[in-house]
Amino acid sequence: MRNIVLRANDGADHVISVAAASLCKTVASLLQDLEASKGEDTDPLIVPLPNVCNCTLQKVLGFCEQQRAFDELCTASPAAQQADLTRQIQAWQMEYMQVSTDELYHLVMAAHYLNVPRLLDLCTDAMAERIRGKSPAQVRECFGLKPSLSPEEEEEIRRSNLWALN
Amino acid sequence: MHGHSGVMIEDSLEEARQLRDASVQRGVTAKPIAARHIYKIYPEAGSEAPPDAVNTLLGACSACNLHTAIALVSKMKAMGILASCNQLVMQPTVALERRRQQHSRQQIAFASWPPSKDCSNTRCALGSTSAQAGWHNLPSDILLQIAAMLPDADIHVMACASASWRDALNRDIRSMAFTWAARDPRNGHLCAVNGVVHGAACIFQNLHNVVLRRATHLRDFALMALAQANGPRLKSIDLSGCQLVTDRGIQALTSSCKNLDTVNISSCYELSDRAFESLGSCRSLQTIDACGCERLTDIGLQALAENAGKLRSVNLGWCEGVTEEGVQSLARCCRQLEVLDLCGCVKVQDMGVVAVALNCKALRSLGLHCCRRLTDASMAACALKLRNLSSLNISGCLSMSPAAVQAVVDVNPSLHTCRSMQRTVIIGGCLALLEVLPAM
């Protein structure tokens, strides 16, 4: 079994298990291809990820390892404990998603780039929660969005839809 | 030395670049095609391929998908073209926004690994601002995934918050309800629905389905703006209970949206024959719910029926101005009718129902609640021609005899009057009909 090394954009290396890497679909399919084509290669597989910074990569890998551990627990434990386990997982995920908006951005982009569906779901869920029930101005403030409309567009919308800009 | 293959690479590169640009524009990844190009040129180029060309071509592929590019690198490594994939830095999926196209060239550059110190410094410097700039350019699939979890009101807010979000949502949102607009605390007052709908016309231009149910303060100008913005893409609209919408609003709707197939204008009390005449211009109209349009008369119904021959489901409940003449022309023109509701059309006489029974063989559901002028002649025609009825409402039709109704039930096996099953023959108020038995 080969080791997989994910290299963040500042050169930091992270060795991860194949089981955890399989949650990253991008890495998993790469792995599959390589196993099929060159099985005897024992060099560690280095995957450079130029647009994932070290701390984000660490967080993503933390998620992968933890989810893998939870999965194993789920299959091992009897049906009676499943509900308890689900609660545990949800609590952990809630704790995990306590991040600033900037961190959330890097996390969601990394999840998209590495194609980790479960993390992506979690991130989009967190983003939806941050949008829910807010006015456009509050959403802009929350995500640091600058109104990127041209003055003409803005005037057009202001005229037709006062509600949108309040 | 490799003049011929060099030309080929140049050609293929140009093609790959075009593919990339096209794919970015359309929002589709062209990876399979780009990948094929690499395989095509490599056997001839061999290990002497100009490194720049290799890099640019890989860049074109990696612009589409990281996985494709990594796979290509591993294949190239196997062919002995690259010593190690560690030499390469691949850039991620290029965001599909049109705005970013001009920057895409910078993003698809290959760099040597590891990056020089300056490079990492700029990354750190960018780190603080990149998230803020990045939120604008969130990939549209992520945006849609977020939108899928939010109610329509918040999707509208998202589109108002950022122009690039608006563009991405506009491209992919197909269905929008504005039922929240009247009671959303962010709006404050009932008339705000006009502002919201009018503003939505600037945001959503690819809607197929619009729900304006019970927008009691919706006015024609807002409906017009939305109809013009969405044009022929609009397929279905629910205006039930929009009491202030007039004939002009419906005329504007039908002149822009020619492909409407489902229209609900129940309880739009202002609408008269002119609205129905203009609805006739939507030739693909299949379902219309005009329940409670009191000002509709035979003239409007005839104009609608003559043009919209594909109608399958028509609800004319409590359209008290409709008589058997209007129903006759409807039956003659729209022979594919499956559902017809005439509940409360008190002026309709037997000739109308007889025409329906003779012409519309596919009829599944017939509602005649309170059509007091109907007699056994209607039932006789139904018993003679209709075989697919699965629902019949004759409650309040006091002049029908048990024998006539029994004949209809006998030839339509889907109708039943059993208490234990859900009754599909509704005979409320007709004491004489209690003895009608289910078909054996």
Automatic annotation (TrEMBL), chain A:
Residues 3-67 form the SKP1 component POZ domain. Part of a SCF (SKP1-cullin-F-box) protein ligase complex. It holds the Pfam family Skp1. Belongs to the SKP1 family. This is SKP1-like protein. Residues 118-164 form the SKP1 component dimerisation domain. Keywords: Ubl conjugation pathway. Pathway: Protein modification; protein ubiquitination. Involved in ubiquitination and subsequent proteasomal degradation of target proteins. Together with CUL1, RBX1 and a F-box protein, it forms a SCF E3 ubiquitin ligase complex. The functional specificity of this complex depends on the type of F-box protein. In the SCF complex, it serves as an adapter that links the F-box protein to CUL1. One of its GO terms (biological process) is jasmonic acid mediated signaling pathway. It comes from the Eukaryota.
Automatic annotation (TrEMBL), chain B:
It is found in: Cytoplasm, Cytoskeleton, Cilium axoneme. One of its GO terms (cellular component) is axoneme. Its main location: cytoplasm. Keywords: Ubl conjugation pathway. Transmembrane segments: none annotated. CDD domains: F-box_SF. Residues 209-402 form the F-box/LRR-repeat protein 15-like leucin rich repeat domain. Residues 135-171 form the F-box domain. The keyword Cell inner membrane does not apply. This is F-box domain-containing protein. It comes from Coccomyxa viridis.
